[in-house]
Design brief:
Layout: H1 4-13, E1 24-26, H2 34-37, E2 44-48, E3 51-55, E4 60-64, E5 70-73, E6 83-86, E7 92-96, E8 99-103, H3 124-132, H4 139-142, H5 154-163, H6 177-199, E9 223-227, E10 232-236, E11 252-254, E12 257-259
Antiparallel strand pairs: 1-6, 2-3, 3-4, 4-8, 5-7, 6-7, 9-10, 11-12
Pfam families: Fapy_DNA_glyco, H2TH
Domain Formamidopyrimidine-DNA glycosylase catalytic: 2-94
Keywords: DNA damage, DNA repair, DNA-binding, Endonuclease, Glycosidase, Hydrolase, Lyase, Multifunctional enzyme, Nuclease
Length: 267
């Protein structure tokens, strides 16, 4: 699933369509009146977290690339697009395997831009307030909560928790105040690192935890497990990533084997 930084790149690549008038619209998205899009100028192209937003005078198009969505600018895939927008000079903008919805044109009334970790209006104090209001939430779920950290996805989650040395099954309310502030700060900082590395086509080279087998700090096997209410993959080290509060003797499934959360692997 594309994360916030990838949607920022999409917005940047599509910037040339702002101010252009749509001359053709088609696709297989249900509930979209494609004829109503023809003749409409693109007022703005914006992003909020994992949402790409095409703002028109009467409405806006909200595009979510889901798990496997893609897009093409001035080229096509060998598949029917969910949404295809054409312009008078033959240029086109195509989206595939994604969700396309129409929403109200007043985006400011619908989106909390201060929750978007990539936005200039990002407000870390608001994120801290939301976290403190949910003390029983697991940090692996908190980082994926789009109302708190819009744009953070599973890669960023795993890398941030490894960077700040926090176990994914830690409770938000058990984190020391300094560690909670570090969580918030690194959610944004790593997102911009992600953006820089993605632009340079070297993102995977910088992964320290996500999909990795061995902890680069401890040189012992990572644990891999589907954790939290989100049930997303977590890659973590039981030695250098501390669990708050201290782990109970509750086994967590890891690579089809049951392991204790208390006892770290031997050196």
């Amino acid at each position: 699933m594309p994360e916030g930084p990838s949607i920022v790149i999409l917005r940047e690549q599509a910037a040339g369509f702002a101010g252009r008038t749509i001359t053709h619209a088609s696709g297989n998205s249900k509930g979209i009146d494609f004829d109503a899009l023809v003749g409409q100028p693109i007022v703005a192209l914006r992003s909020w977290g994992k949402h790409f937003l095409i703002q028109l005078p009467p409405l806006a198009l909200r595009i979510h690339l889901l798990m496997f969505g893609t897009y093409r600018i001035n080229e096509r895939k060998d598949a029917q697009p969910r949404l295809s927008l054409g312009f008078d000079d033959g240029e086109e903008f195509n989206f595939y395997t994604c969700s396309v919805k129409t929403i109200d044109a007043d985006l400011d009334a619908q989106y909390d831009w201060s929750a978007d970790v990539m936005n200039d209006q990002w407000n870390p104090a608001q994120a801290l307030k939301k976290l403190r209001a949910a003390p029983d939430m697991l940090v692996c779920d908190a980082l994926l909560d789009q109302e708190i950290f819009s744009g953070v996805g599973n890669i960023i989650k795993n890398e941030v928790l490894f960077r700040i040395r926090v176990h994914p099954l830690s409770r938000v309310g058990a984190l020391p105040a300094a560690k909670l502030r570090e969580l918030v700060a690194q959610a944004r900082a790593y997102s911009f690192d992600f953006l820089k590395w993605k632009r340079a086509l070297v993102l995977k080279q910088h992964w320290l935890a996500h999909t990795k087998r061995i902890c680069p700090r401890c040189d012992i096997p990572f644990h891999k497990a589907h954790l939290g209410k989100t049930n997303r993959r977590s890659f973590f080290c039981t030695r250098c990533q501390k669990q708050y509060p201290a782990a109970l003797l509750t086994p967590v499934r890891s690579d089809s084997r049951q392991r204790s959360q208390r006892t770290p692997p031997a050196s």
